[in-house]
Write a structure and sequence with these properties.
Blueprint: H1 6-15, E1 22-28, H2 32-42, H3 47-55, H4 60-79, E2 87-96, E3 100-105, E4 111-116, E5 119-127
Antiparallel strand pairs: 1-5, 2-5, 3-4
Helix pairs in contact: 3-4
Biased composition (Basic residues): 1-11
InterPro entries: Ribosomal_uL22 (IPR001063), Ribosomal_uL22_bac/chlpt-type (IPR005727), Ribosomal_uL22_bac/org-type (IPR047867), Ribosomal_uL22_CS (IPR018260), Ribosomal_uL22_sf (IPR036394)
GO molecular function: rRNA binding; structural constituent of ribosome
């Protein structure tokens, strides 16, 4: 257990906090594998290029990631005072979220399980 008063502990924890602008989408109704196809395409790119990629990408996950990227840019401008032209996608990843389990009836009275996968998608930006 950490020593010190509660305010000292909180202050020490907040000093280690990541100050890079980011945005997170929780419980997105897309599997991690499908989201990673789009995330791999924009990782390391500047924001204007990344927005162009997700705008014209035909995958469903790209529409979700486009809104997430725009949100991260807005967070950078409003909360951190950064310019949108200097930003690039430093990190972007998708983690597995809870899976919804559904049942589909099959032949001869059998039940077939359908897994509807969800994911938590995070985009982290930084300045050049």
């Amino acid at each position: 257990m950490a020593k010190g008063h509660r305010s000292q502990i909180k202050r020490a924890r907040n000093e280690q906090k990541d100050t890079r602008p980011s945005a997170t989408l929780s419980y997105a109704r897309v599997s991690v594998q499908k989201a990673c196809f789009v995330l791999d395409a924009i990782r390391g790119k500047d924001v204007a290029t990344a927005l162009g990629i997700v705008t014209y990408n035909p995958r469903y996950a790209s529409s979700l990631i486009k809104k997430l990227l725009e949100s991260a840019v807005a967070n950078a401008e409003n909360n951190n005072g950064m310019k949108a032209g200097n930003l690039y996608v430093e990190e972007c990843y998708a983690n597995q979220a809870p899976t919804m389990k559904r049942i589909k009836p099959r032949a001869q009275g059998r039940a077939y399980r359908i897994l509807k996968r969800t994911s938590h998608i995070t985009v982290v930006l930084n300045e050049k």
